[in-house]
Amino acid sequence: MLRIVADDLGLYKSVNDGIIFLLKNGKINGASLMANSEAFDDAVARCLEVQSPNIGAHLVLVEEKSLSGMTLPKNHKIFFIKYILRLIKLSDIDKELKAQIDKITQTGIKPQFVNSHQHLHLLPGITDIVIKLAIENQIPYVRIVNEPVNLSGSKLFRKVQLLFLNFLSGLAKKKITRAGLQCNDFFVGFVSAGNLNSNDVELAKNLTEKYPDKIIELGCHPGHENEELKEKYKNWGNYNWEKELNLFKI
């Protein structure tokens, strides 16, 4: 089974436009919503345009504004260092993630799955919090990252990061299934995040054919672009929302 899920719904109005277009036209299977993003209210309103939109919670612990008063680091690298040094309390993370899920549910949207910005929910300790919140909110599905790795070619550092995430995902999957929740078996979209191409889509389809009884999730970041969006998130690298939107429009 192939699930195509667009992340970052709520990030920016033009991103919402692209994601909602794909949802309305059945080009993707769902979208994960950021509760602490600038275009959250617009995203919630736009979800009403889609019949059974399949919305999940995209939990955010970096870059955006906190809902609980917690100080969110500027990027995932700073977060990871502070987390390893125990400068970030699990109790604060619990409070923040609860506030984000509460904000989504209070709009009337019932999240059907949960994942996170930069996959930080896969870090030990945070995984336990997310599982607890998923059970409390009757969210049946938690994303893991288990993407095939080919260390040849470019993006070597990104692929080394993927090896680490795949390891964490193996640990997380055991906890998720033990808790009676569901997760995907494979994931495609980490190495090429922000710049997916037809090869990534083909890989996801090939995995689906090879493992017909498994859940294959293809994560994407589609949207319409403008200069303000690109300037605001220039630290993300060469993200190409429009390219990914066009990839799934076909």
Account of the 3D structure:
By secondary structure, this protein is an alpha/beta fold. Helix content is 43%, strand content 11%. It contains 9 helices and 6 strands, in the order βαβαβααβααβαβαα. A 6-stranded parallel beta sheet has the order 4-3-2-1-6-5. α1 (13-24) packs parallel to α2, α1 packs parallel to α9 and α4 (90-105) runs parallel beside α5 (126-136). The longest helix is centred in the C-terminal third of the chain and has 23 residues, at 156-178. The chain starts with a strand and ends with a helix. The mean pLDDT is 96.
Give the structural class: alpha/beta
Query: Average pLDDT, to the nearest integer?
Result: 96
Strand content: 5-15%
CA-CA gap between termini: 20 Å
Placed side by side, the strands forming the largest sheet appear as: 4-3-2-1-6-5
List low-pLDDT spans.
Answer: none
H/E topology pattern: EHEHEHHEHHEHEHH
Main traits of this protein?
250 residues; alpha/beta; six-stranded parallel β-sheet; 9 helices; 6 strands; 11% strand
